[in-house]
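Quick one, T. Sequence first:
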Amino acid sequence: MSFWGALFASPGLQNSDRERPATLSSSKRGLQAVNRISATGIPYRIERVRRKSIGLIITAEGLVIRAPSWTPIYEIEAAIAERKTWIANATERQRSRLAQLAELRHGGHILFRGNKLKIEARAGLFESIDLTEHQCVVTSVTGEIATDRLDLEIKRLAKIELPTLARDMARAAGLPLQEVRLSSAKTLWGSCTVDGNVRLNFRLVQLPPPLMRHVVAHELAHLVEFNHSARFWAIVAALDPQWKAHRRAVKNYGVLLEL
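Structure tokens:
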């Protein structure tokens, strides 16, 4: 058993007894989704999910309503009308956050390792992307920016950096990490399975390094404590002494996941 396992093991606690942790960002498991426009003129997407009440969420794409399958449309419409002002304000804040973090055009900007880089688009014979902590130069035949190619370059760099970081941190702490994979999830920074596998969102390399390490620490802690107990947070604290501040800061970058 690893150091952490010996220190925090709970007698009689088996993998099958452990609850799946709520990760840094909520998962999206809609049973069905339908796009509608409310009586007040607000476009929204309704997702029928397993929950007891109506939930209103503002994403980069707009308003999302998460409601039980048995909730009638008129109740959903009433909830939207009641919170019309909040929806308008929250939508504007979300647009503002997205504009601050990513404006994918020539002269716009992109976030990489916490640095806000000006994007330079060039026309050339060959397609290439030069993305470092100091610059972002996109060369294409047309001189335009293809966001999917930019994402592929970010993923390429993440594939080099994130698994190495996770393995180094796990090895130093004696945590039983088995495998590290990249994720493109739209709502999760990371996840962990009971058999020791960790998935890390490729967009983590866009965050400041201390926040990237915090997310990795969070998932590695689940290798020993598959919950969010006091013992879990003790492991996170050992891996990231400033975890409380970093945990709050990560929330400011959640809109990146929606790109």
